[in-house]
Amino acid sequence: MNAHAAKHTTVDLNDSTPAGSPALPFGRTVKIGWSRIGYEVRAYFRQGDSVFFTFLFPLVMLTIFSVAFGEGSFGQDADGNDVSAAAYYLPAMLAAGLLLSGLQNMAIDIAMEKSDGTLKRLAGTPLPVVSYFFGKIGQVFATGMLQALLLIVVAATVFQVSLPTDTALWVTFFWVFVLGVTTSAILGIALSGLPRSGKSATAVIIPITLVLQFISGVYLPFTQLPEWLQNVASAFPLKWMAQGMRSVFLPEDFKMLEQGESWDLAGVAIALAIWLVAGLVLARFTFRWIRKDS
């Protein structure tokens, strides 16, 4: 290989270690990945802006909506009890949290690490790419779970939101959360190559997530949007994550307000699975692990 070719060599997602490094056993790779999770979580909570705009932002919005519309009713349950603003917006904020903790956080974080030379330095170490992403996705799961727990606890204790008592509903919450946060994280990896520099990462990624929240039934009732905009939103994962969360926390009769007048949980699973696969394909072609000689 000539010097010019070597200068521009990169390692993609299929590579497990930098050039010249022996392949590590799978168990060792996983162990390193586990150790990376703790590092990534600590680094995440040291970044005040990231903590606010990804971790605390859904809680702030839930509080604003709950206080602003505190005297209003968003419908009634089967027993004739009013559904409060806090109860109505809780599933929406949980879905938004999945997008922010996964897609927004991951895309901006990796773009910044690429720009400031972190990826270049890591490429000169024996750290496997698999361990790097294990740590990143593990951080998203950990912070996403803490965020969801915080939202649910505050909704129940501060705003007196009644939580589901049916075990099947919590099973639905679990698989929607896991599939949603995984899909969001993978898409975040794929989108990390979109910003041209770390400085432009927030300016590029945040508008994308903000628009998706407005058209996907997070801030506005989904059925109040024009039908053509509902169809556009249905092509993206956030709409399905919000719908899955609504099926858990809102009364059964509220499914009549959804497209097709059904929670369509099978559709939720299929849509998120499709986006998960699409994200893996996109990440395969957009992510580059830059070696120290690049």
What does this protein structure show overall?
- The longest helix has 31 residues, at 85-115.
- Residues 1-22 have low confidence and may be disordered.
- The chain has one domain (3-290).
- It contains eleven helices and two strands, in the order αβααααααααααβ.
- The chain has 294 residues and is mainly alpha-helical.
- The protein has a two-stranded antiparallel ribbon.
Spans of at least 5 consecutive residues whose pLDDT stays below 50 are 1-22
Could you tell me the radius of gyration in angstroms? 21 Å
**Strand order of the biggest β-sheet:** 1-2
Secondary-structure-derived class: mainly alpha
What's the total helix number? 11
The percent of residues in helical segments reads 55-70%
Main sheet?
Answer: 2 strands, antiparallel
Percent of residues in beta strands? under 5%
Round the mean pLDDT to the nearest integer and report it: 85
SSE sequence, one letter per element: HEHHHHHHHHHHE
- N- to C-terminal separation? 14 Å
Overall 3D shape: elongated
Provide the number of structural domains.
Answer: 1
How many beta-strand runs? 2
Write the layout of secondary structure elements.
Layout: H1 3-7, E1 10-11, H2 26-45, H3 48-68, H4 85-115, H5 118-123, H6 129-157, H7 167-191, H8 201-215, H9 227-233, H10 237-249, H11 265-286, E2 289-290
Antiparallel strand pairs: 1-2
